[in-house]
Amino acid sequence: MDIKTLNEMIQRESAFVDTLTAEVGKVIVGQKNMVDRLLIGLLCQGHILLEGVPGLAKTLTIKTLAAAIHAKFQRIQFTPDLLPADLIGTMIYNQKDGKFITRKGPIFANFILADEINRAPAKVQSALLESMQERQVTISEDTYPLDEPFLVLATQNPIEQEGTYPLPEAQVDRFMLKVKIGYPSRDEELQIMRQNVNGEPPKVRNVVSTKEILSARDTVKQVYMDEKIERYILDIVFATRDPKKFKLEKLAPLINYGASPRASINLALAARAHAFIKRRGYVIPEDVRSICPDVLRHRVAVTYEAEAEEITAEQVVMEILNQVEVP
């Protein structure tokens, strides 16, 4: 398929993106970056970790997106006393029949909002992350596949650490993107204030079906990625592992360990999805640069020396992006 034909197909298949973002925009003011990242996760079968202080509409955005798509939504509030069975379900005894029957948990939905995931103990986190990775749940001796699309959107509060169980690095790596949410601008906050003070928030309609989402996923795989872009992605990822080879000697003492091969895969997938939502049939370097911080910020671990100098993984990633040659 030539680029012109591919572009025309992408234009047709991605038409729902504008409709969906407009519908979400009725309720969510600003936060376009967050909405775009949620769409990228949805199109790539990737799960998303949202981090931001309370009150930035993380939960509201996810609920609004689920409402705009004709899909089943479940919100799970993670607490220290939560058990794996509360999440995936369990076997219960039916006295009438004298048999055990399966009662499925809230994980059996299309959109799972894992609110404050770092408040639950390790066993519950592991049960959720197994569902994310395998897309299936085992209860007793039976295995049940999860419905598609299946997307986990986890939130965590970075400022309150009492009673929390931080996610281990190996588990955080399962999330395709880690999105940091910032404060709205002054004008956006004025609009938010008026919208919430003056009356009922607008009702969100179902404007997209799950069938359209699944069809769009297949189309995203056809977005053209040149070999130069592939090598550019590898250069970025390898620079996190061996910065000296890329003339980034000053970063060597700041990086404890670099990004895994999962980062290369997710960066390529996310770049394709970014091109798709921008209504393009091919990936450009800007797609990679735009999505790169969200893919790598939780996969690059900095040393104690970097922490002492208050240098974050995100700053390291940005330095790599500024130094690695763009094709």
What best-fitting shape do the alpha-carbon axes yield?
Answer: globular
Radius of gyration, whole Å: 21 Å
Which structural class do you get from the secondary structure elements? Answer: alpha/beta
- Mean pLDDT across all residues, rounded? 84
Secondary-structure element string: HHHEHEEHEEEHEEEHEHEHHEHHEHH
- CATH topology grouping of the largest domain: Rossmann fold
Total DSSP helices: 14
Strand residues, percent: 15-25%
Describe the main β-sheet briefly.
5 strands, parallel
Name of the top-level CATH class of the largest domain: Alpha Beta
Q: Distance between termini?
A: 23 Å
CATH architecture call of the largest domain: 3-Layer(aba) Sandwich
Uncertain stretches: none
DSSP helix fraction: 40-55%
A few lines on this structure:
This protein has helices spanning 3-13, 15-25, 32-44, 58-68, 84-88, 122-134, 169-172, 186-197, 210-220, 227-241, 261-277, 285-296, 304-308, 313-323; strands at 48-51, 69-70, 73-77, 89-94, 99-104, 111-115, 136-139, 142-145, 151-156, 177-180, 208-209, 255-257, 301-302. It is α/β, with parallel strands linked by helices and 327 residues long.
